[in-house]
Amino acid sequence: MPALYTQDSIERTREAVDMVELVSAKTELRRVGTRWLGLCPFHDERTPSFSVDAERKLYNCFGCGVGGDAITFVRELEALDFPEAVELLAERYNVELKREREDPQAEERRRRRERLLALLERTAGFYATYLWEAEEARRARDYLAGRGLSPEVLGSFRVGYAPKAWDRLLVGAQRDGFKPEELLAAGLAQRARSGGLLDRFRGRIMFPLADARGRVLGFGARAMRDEQGAKYINTAENDVYHKGRQLFGIDRARAAAAKSGRVVVVEGYTDVLALHQAGIEETVAVMGTALTQDQLGELARAAGRDGTVFLAFDADRSGQEAMLRAARIAEDRDLQLRVVQMPEGRDPADLVAAEGGQAVIDRLASALSMLEFAVERTLEDEDLDRPEGRDRALVRARALIAAAPDRSARRDHLVRMVADRLDVPVDYVIASVQGRPPREEMRVGAGEEPVGAKQGATKLDAEGVFLALCSAAGKAGEGYLSRLTDAHLSSPALRRARDHLLAHPGDPLADLPEDRELAALLTAVAVAADTGEAAGETRLHTDFLGLDKRRIERELRRARADGDFERQGELAAALQQVRRELDSAMGQDP
Ligand SMILES: [Zn+2]
Question: Is 231 part of any domain?
């Protein structure tokens, strides 16, 4: 690629820069002899090791080893490429850039693009002023205030309002010398059925969509009334605006992202504003939930080397699937992705409003790796109440676990997670991942392969095993049997087996019912009760807690599916309680 700007232009730009002023915008400098010293804007430190040579217009840091001139400073800190950094500095220090020979057509395209950008910039200013000054924008102002957004943050993102009238923008922009054709090309006007032009955005809250350098390329627009059709509309694809490259807020997020080494990706405009306001300035939003390669590239640039990208999408299905897709397309990149688990039915802006910014920061700290997230999703996808579902979940999960390095803490963690959710011993999962057949006795509780499959006996899952334990444990067993509700048992046969055992204490095979399934189940229970060791109180207690935990998890999934928040809260508390009891019961000697 030929150089964009002449060497002479670049030199003149370097010379025009006031290095102390440029750096001072990012970190406070004080004079020490011939140099200027301050805290390094590239790494976190408490004592200054960042130094600027005003004369030679260079900087370096003794702490992290960065160094360079004004162009590298802007490139690194603002995540710009070389020509972008040169342009930014030239604009700031009033240097006219000369381009290397340019063919007339390319020049024509560039000039047209610059016109469209100027038009979009003017329009963003118009909408922003209109939001604060127009009477008709009052409801929009109220709505934004109701979301907890301050005038400062709205101002810094230049949030605006488009008048309801048909042609306010058209008329104003033409008065400023723009042609109707340019308004169409910039996506600001549309053709009416009559053939005439009208404003594309009317009666909507306007979010300017800027590129990394803060140049407005298009708009996202939120409806204020139901009859307006789509709640959100965006600028349509055109010569300047490309949805697949756009990240809302990237211009405001870049500096914070470069410094913190992370970018937080959310779904909504107001989420970006709310997090920004809460001090998490390294936040951007995707336009729609499908993250593209272009966007990932931009995110990787913003997060910098060794940076991490946090995805904080909604807990609903589309948000979750979008994150898995993102993981797949990020696979080939050297990019760390983490998934932030959001509460059901709440977006990040809700979370900040209800619990403050710290709630989001806490969730960032406990974000899942993509591998953990993928395993989690696999478990959610399968019906873990059924043995076949647990089989499938294990097969799918073990392929994911195998992707983690052997003997790593990551793999260990995943194994524990799967064992816990499938209610099987850790060794069983390890054996499965390593492709070894699990030891026989592990199969009983697992509900995987039947114990005596070859003999054609009915297999017992965790619930059946518990029935057998109770049946063999006399009075204590009866006590636990009577505590088993229908919700603890995942099939009608198991419930009837429980009733039968309660009706025939000490003699499960008495009065065997005609129902062949039930008879087979009771026989299996009786055989297991006979052959197994009599369980102590602790074993009964922990197994009961295990069933209770699974019951709560099932009900929690149902409450989530129903969107029943109140019930979710109750169940989450119950789940914590049962986990605590399990922990303390496991701590006791058997
Ligand atoms: Zn440094």
Answer: yes
pTM: 0.64
CATH number of the domain that residue 324 is part of: 3.40.1360.10
Instruction: Mark whether 260 and 224 lie in a shared domain.
Output: no
Q: How many domains does the chain have?
A: 5
Domain match, 556 and 485 both = yes
**Residue 510 belongs to some domain of the structure:** yes
Tens-place pLDDT, residues 3-31: 689 989 999 999 999 999 999 988 999 99
- How many angstroms does the Cα of residue 34 sit away from the middle of ligand 1? 20
Do residues 274 and 340 share a domain? yes
- Ligand 1 centre to CA of 14 (Å) is 22
Query: 45 CA distance to ligand 1 centroid (A)?
Result: 8
* 158: CATH: 3.90.980.10
Distance 43 CA to ligand 1 centre (A): 5
Question: Quick check: helix, strand or coil at residue 161?
Answer: strand
Mean pLDDT for all residues in the chain = 86
Nearest Cα to Cα of residue 74 among 84, 64, 65, 66: 84
Give pLDDT, residue 123. Answer: 98
Per-residue 3-state assignment (H helix, E strand, C coil) for 22-46: HHHCCCCEEEECCEEEECCCCCCCC
Q: What is the pLDDT of residue 458?
A: 58
Q: Tell me the torsion sign for CA atoms 359, 361, 366, 368.
A: positive
Residue 255 pLDDT exceeds 90: no
Please tell me the predicted confidence (pLDDT) of residue 587: 64
Query: Residue 453 — very low, low, confident or very high, per pLDDT cuts 50/70/90?
Result: very low
Of 547, 561, 528, 409, give the one whose Cα is nearest residue 490: 547
Residues 6+ away with beta carbon under 8 Å from 220: 206, 207, 209, 232, 233, 234, 235, 248, 269, 287
- Asked if residue 260 and residue 230 are part of one domain, the reply reads no
- The alpha carbon of 49 and the centre of ligand 1 are apart by a number of angstroms equal to 7
Q: What is the tens place of the pLDDT at every residue in 138-182?
A: 999 999 999 999 999 999 999 999 999 999 999 999 999 999 999
Angle at 301 between CA 296 and CA 304, to 5 degrees: 120
If DSSP codes are grouped into helix, strand and coil, which group holds residue 232?
A: strand
Residue 85 CA to ligand 1 center (angstroms) comes to 20
Cα of 22 from ligand 1 centre, angstroms: 16
The beta strands (E) that lie in 267-358 are given as 283-286, 308-311, 336-339
The more confident residue out of 148 and 377 is: 148
Residue-level pLDDT at 437? 53
- Give, in order, the Cα–Cα distances in Å from 508 to each of 77, 403, 470, 516: 75, 46, 11, 15
| Residues of the domain holding 170 | 110-241
Rounded alpha-carbon distances, angstroms, from residue 136 to 139, 141, 198, 349: 7, 10, 19, 25
Looking at the structure, tell me whether residues 336 and 396 fall in a common domain.
no
Task: Encode pLDDT of 52-107 as tens digits.
Answer: 999 899 999 998 888 999 999 998 887 788 998 999 999 999 999 998 887 888 88
